[in-house]
Amino acid sequence: MTTAFAPEGAQPTDAPQLRVLAQYVKDLSFENPLAAAAARSADNQPVIDMGVEVKSRPVGSDGNVYEVDLRIHVTAKRGAETLFLADLVYAGLFQFVNVRADDVELLLWVECPRLLFPFSRQLLAEITREGGYPPLLINPIDFSPLYQAEVMSRAKAAEAASEENPAA
Questions:
Q1: What distance in Å separates the CA atoms of residue 106 and residue 94, rounded to the nearest whole number?
Q2: What is the pLDDT of residue 44?
Q3: Of the residues 24, 71, 85, 168, which has the fewest C-beta atoms closer than 10 A?
Q4: Is-contact 108 68, C-beta < 8 A?
Q5: For position 2, what pLDDT does the model report?
Q6: How many other CB atoms are found less than 10 A from the CB of residue 46?
Q7: Is pLDDT of 3 > 50?
Q8: DSSP 18
Q9: What pLDDT, on the 0 to 100 scale, is given for residue 32?
């Protein structure tokens, strides 16, 4: 019997791997309707409203490459006036090698967005700074609650569907 050892620090060839194949800006919109007025009246902080969404889809026919979109939508208001709107979809292509099928969904909803987030955060900081505002520095996001909410939403939808169409 022959045993092959991997060089020190290298992973065995059958170890689970998450590979980042590419990452890119898929969509970016920045609206700055009150740019001139905002630059003159910076005396009070705007109210920031932010939403985060994660979407994924398989790419190709082999079933182990996925595109993951991290969408961050930001609205900044001062009183009733909208200072700026930023909408960013930052995406990545991820390949899973030797990953159990049961683990892929969790990785798509939690680990992939976690890897995309620092780049999204940097882009939003730069675009708001270029828009004439202090850089928007978003706190790190824990994507686990988003995943749990999605799982619960699916369970409720399945339950509602089964109540509407009970098995005979």
A1: 13
A2: 72
A3: 168
A4: yes
A5: 46
A6: 19
A7: no
A8: E
A9: 93
Q: Which residues of 132-153 are buried (b: 16+ CB within 10 A; e: fewer)?
A: ebeebebeebebeebbeeeeee
Residues 6+ apart with CB under 8 A from 35: 131, 132
Under the banding of pLDDT at 50, 70 and 90, the label for residue 167 is low
Taking CA atoms, 20 is separated from 86, 102, 114, 126, in Å, by 26, 20, 12, 24
8 A C-beta contact, residue 105 and residue 74: no
Of 63, 67, 64, whose CA–CA distance to 26 is shortest? 67
Is residue 127 pLDDT above 90, yes or no? yes
Domains of the chain: 17-151 (3.10.420.10)
Cα dihedral sign for 153, 159, 162, 164? negative
- The total of other beta-carbon atoms located within 10 Å of residue 91's CB is 21
Other beta carbons within 10 Å of 58: 13
Instruction: Give me the sign of the Cα torsion angle 11, 13, 16, 20.
Output: positive
> Cβ of 101: how many Cβ atoms within 10 Å?
9
In tens, the pLDDT along 43-61 reads: 677 899 999 999 999 998 8
